Structure formats: C-alpha cells, structure tokens
Amino acid sequence: MKEDKLRKRVYIDRKLNEVLTEMAKEKGMNSNEFIEQAIEFFIEYENGNIENDNIFTNRINELTQQVSLLRHESSAYNQSLLNKMEIIADLQNPTDYLN
Fold it and tell me: Which of 20, 37, 60, 69 sits in a 20 to 30 Å window from 84, CA-based?
C-alpha cells in the first residue's frame, strides 16, 4: 500500500545539498526523511514561539491590569488619608461661630 505522501520539487544550493546529505548520513537517514524531519521541527518551533508570545502577552496584560488597580487603590487611599487629616485639623482648631 502506498504511503500518503506527496512529491514536492525543491531547488536548493549545491553546498546546502552537500551539508544536507552529510547530516542525513550521520543520522542514518536518507535526504528525504531528513528534510521532512527538519520541516516538521521548523513548523513546531514556529508554532511554539507563537504560543510563548501569547503566554507572555497575556501575562503582560495581567500585570498591566494589576498596576492599574494598584494606582486606583493608592489614589483612593491618599484621598481617604487627606480627608482624615482635614478632620483632625478641624478638631484641633474648632470654629467658634458664636463670637
């Protein structure tokens, strides 16, 4: 039974072909198997980098949201602190409306 494979015609440089043939021999493979494995590795590598980029982008978005939340909380805390300080100042210097 014939394998489910297609024949592709690819033009490569002679020097690259020599390197490819040597590397395939070192691994005990023929050139076609070596090229197929190299293409599979490249595709997986490219897909892996995209996944990593997505992971890092999501993490940066999470951190940005946390920084925004901290800024909001800090602003609210500062306003609360200012209000308390005004109350303390008013209590120490009460206004005398009768005089």
Answer: 69
**Does the pLDDT of residue 18 top 90, yes or no?**
yes
pTM over 0.90: no
Q: Are 33 and 24 in contact (CB under 8 A)?
A: yes
End-to-end CA distance of the chain: 111
Q: Any residues with CB less than 8 A from the CB of 24 and at least 6 apart, and which?
A: 30, 31, 33, 34
Q: How far apart are CA 86 and CA 59, in angstroms?
A: 41
Taking the CA atoms of 83, 88, 92 and 96 in sequence, report the sign of the dihedral they define: positive
